[in-house]
Design a protein that fits this description.
Elements lengths: L24 H32 L5 H23 L13 H11 L2 H13 L5 E8 L4 E8 L10 E7 L6 H4 L3 H8 L5 H11 L2
Antiparallel strand pairs: 1-2, 1-3
Length: 204
């Protein structure tokens, strides 16, 4: 298959060792090079299977294949968003600015209330999944979204502004099974400039 038609593991705009003590070098490296890479590999393998079936006329179990493809592509895309909306703690700002701040206060009452509800969203994910801040263009409102696995309970067509990964592979080396402690620390590495830019680009 042409590499341009395959998913690629994105390069990160920082080094693995820049997040200590919030996240260790080992935790970030395994998360990126092993877990994220596995979703890239899984999606590409399924696409190759579909391509080969056109040549051989092989019968495919499309229900199972597309369910798996949704999971693998979802894992790749959600992680790609995640890497960009975190930044080393030395570069992180304490809260959003500009239009993003204005929209969050308008919707949630305060930045602290937004953080509280976002963290509750992440804490209550059943099993593995994500918490996301999304934006609805029809209502012009930021809306929280809870995603199970990588692809369940997603609001179709909503644009995602920020995500946090609550699969244990995102934090287990540093926080064991203490999801709450990881989420408390998450606010120290949010790239508010990136999140704000996503909203600005959406509303241009």
């Amino acid at each position: 298959m042409n590499n341009s038609k395959m998913y690629q593991l994105p390069e990160l705009p920082y080094q693995y060792d820049e997040f200590a003590p919030i996240l260790s070098k080992e935790q970030l490296q395994i998360h990126h090079e092993k877990h994220h890479q596995a979703y890239v590999n899984g999606a590409n393998a399924l696409l190759e299977k579909m391509d080969k079936s056109r040549e051989t006329n092989e019968k495919l179990d499309m229900k199972a294949l597309l369910k798996d493809l949704s999971f693998q592509i979802g894992g790749h895309l959600m992680h790609s968003l995640f890497w960009r909306n975190i930044t080393p703690p030395s570069k992180a700002k304490t809260e959003p600015e500009g239009l993003l701040k204005e929209k969050l206060i308008q919707e949630f009452g305060s930045i602290e209330r937004f953080k509280e509800l976002f963290q509750q969203t992440a804490m209550s994910v059943e099993g593995s999944g994500w918490a996301a801040l999304t934006y609805c263009l029809q209502t012009q409102r930021p809306i929280l979204m809870q995603v199970e696995k990588h692809n369940m309970h997603v609001y179709p067509m909503f644009r995602i502004l920020m995500v946090v990964d609550v699969f244990e592979h995102a934090y287990y080396l540093d926080y064991k099974n203490n999801r709450a402690a990881f989420l408390d620390s998450f606010w120290k590495i949010v790239n508010w400039d990136e999140v704000g830019q996503r909203l600005d680009n959406l509303l241009k």
